[in-house]
Design goal:
There is one protein chain. This protein is globular. 25% of the residues lie in helices and 29% in strands. The relative contact order is 0.12. An eight-stranded mixed beta barrel has the order 1-2-3-4-7-8-6-5. It contains three helices and eight strands. By secondary structure, it is α+β, with helices and mostly antiparallel strands.
Length: 200
Amino acid sequence: MTAFPSTTLPSSWRRPSRYAAMAAALVGLWLSGSALYIHAKAVVAQILLSRAFAAEIASGAVVKPWSWADTWPVARVEVPRLGASAIVLAGSSGQALAFGPGHLERTPDAGEPGIAVYTAHRDTHFAFLGRVEPGDAIVVARRDGKVMRFRVTHTEVVRWDASGIHPDTPGRHLTLVTCWPLDSALPGPLRYVVHADLEG
């Protein structure tokens, strides 16, 4: 009888080494911890921002959510059908967006002539944008105590540098902007935009 060579693989080929397995486990733990930290920070920040926003409405003065903050609340945006809301911060710097949606610089306050633009990360404060539909109401409470009600007209995906959004557009509008695709963890050139018009 002819003997055939063994097809059994060496044990080092059948399973990763102990060090590789430990490294993979550590990387997995680090990534999980990082994701949990980002979401926990977002939740805690919104609690502190809600308190500061309430104090602003009561006092009429700017109230920073914590002493070293370089931003402050300017509005609360809410989509009642979804039960989703967030405190909006002044400016759209990376530091502001880590804690909440930002009111884009050089755009008007919500409800004033032109287009007010709020922008936020797709995986935290604007994670609900993909469920917003035409016809939905968006309610904005401003720090001056005024409450504005908008109605969603449409949504679209655009390049970040070709949005067609001009702050001085006639009428009174609101746009909510986040990155696209909504389920991606990587940054890209596309943005998801929700357009709404002031009611009344």
